Prior knowledge:
Elements: E1 7-14, H1 20-30, H2 36-48, H3 55-68, E2 79-81, E3 86-91, H4 95-103, E4 111-117, H5 124-135, E5 140-146, H6 155-171, E6 181-183, H7 207-213, E7 227-235, E8 239-245, E9 250-251, E10 256-260, E11 268-277, E12 280-281, E13 285-286, E14 290-296, E15 308-311, E16 319-328, E17 342-345, E18 348-361, E19 368-371, E20 381-388, E21 405-410, E22 413-425
Parallel strand pairs: 1-3, 1-4, 4-5, 5-6
Antiparallel strand pairs: 2-3, 7-8, 7-15, 8-14, 9-13, 10-11, 10-15, 11-12, 11-14, 16-20, 16-22, 17-18, 17-21, 18-19, 18-20, 21-22
Amino acid sequence: MAGEKPNFNIIFVGHVDHGKSTAIGRLLYESGLFSEQELTKMRDVAEKLGKKGFEFAFVMDRLKEERERGLTIDLAYRKIITKKYQVTIIDAPGHRDFVKNMITGTSQADAAILVVAVQHGVMAQTKEHVWLCRTMGVEQIAVLINQMDTVNYSQEKYNKVLEDVKNLLKMTGYKVEKINFIPASAYYGDNITKKSENLKWYNGPTLLEQFDLFEPPKKPVDMPLRMPIENVYTITGVGTVPVGKILTGKMKPGDKVIILPARTGKGIVGEVKTIEMHHEQLKEAIAGDNVGVNIRGVGKQDIARGDVIALETEAPPVAEEFLAQIIVINHPTVIAPGYQPVLHVHTAQVPVRFLELVKKIDPKTGSVLQEKPDFLKKGDVAIVKLKPMKPLVIETQQKNPYMSRFAIRDMGQTVAAGVCIEVIPKKL
């Protein structure tokens, strides 16, 4: 395992049909991750379906379908090895998958590539995705101004879109002087992995070069141990094995841990016997590691997905209620006190009730627009008080950003995204 490059997760976001999948498909193709034959096959499929020009996108979509059917795919497909990183690419097709991906924590994006088609510029989902990246704590972002072939690679058209995108990013709090805006044609391969003759007026990085310009994510090993459980297995000869990703801190055999809220809602205490990653026993596991842990004194019926493993001395709170800042992304009507959707945070999914709408905030300035509004609608940013209807571990953005970001879903869609800013703990 030594000498492996660090993992880096990049999510591609942007309005539908602005070329996210095509950009990824082209990148994988030029990086030698699928063959000319496969591309020809995809081209035929695309033409038969009346989708000429979609062959690169189909590469990603075929994989997506395989992923949804739960087949394992050769890892190379999703990973690109650059000079600096092992990059895992997350394609965010529509809103739903995007948010689900962002939230399960397994795909905590370290950076985002915002894809904007030059002839359409900033569209509804462009804004939405930028806000989501911001709310979800994706600090690093680069912009791919795509489909430059449709405007004859015009610098003037690029500059116009550049200004609009810059304004959007500024408004959401990104520092635009640190952001690269890459003109490209994903379909023809301009500026994806090779510098383009058609874009001589641009002297910044290609998409592939941009990956290595992102800064490595800081491993939050100095924070208290937090390992949300993704699954619980029973393994013959070993016993109960919760599996998940350590979000912060570290863990070693012999550690006294508490699993919260557990079935009782009050937590259950045990001792780490063994830690395994890729079938190897570890002496220590740290933030970023996906591990299986055997804990003495804990049975399969005691714990479930959504519980959190912590050191007994640094237990997180189980929330009675909490305050959060949210952005309403998509709601057909309005959100009022009493509304009861489902909260997704780390690996937990718990129904919550909106107890109080505390205040509405101006997203551009952060100032208060209205105290105690009667309702919230799409696009509103607000501070709200929420009550989990089942025991839930959540922490504040200040204490632990990895345990504070969440999405609110209802009717099969993401209604809002947010971060916890204050927890009123349960008396355990």
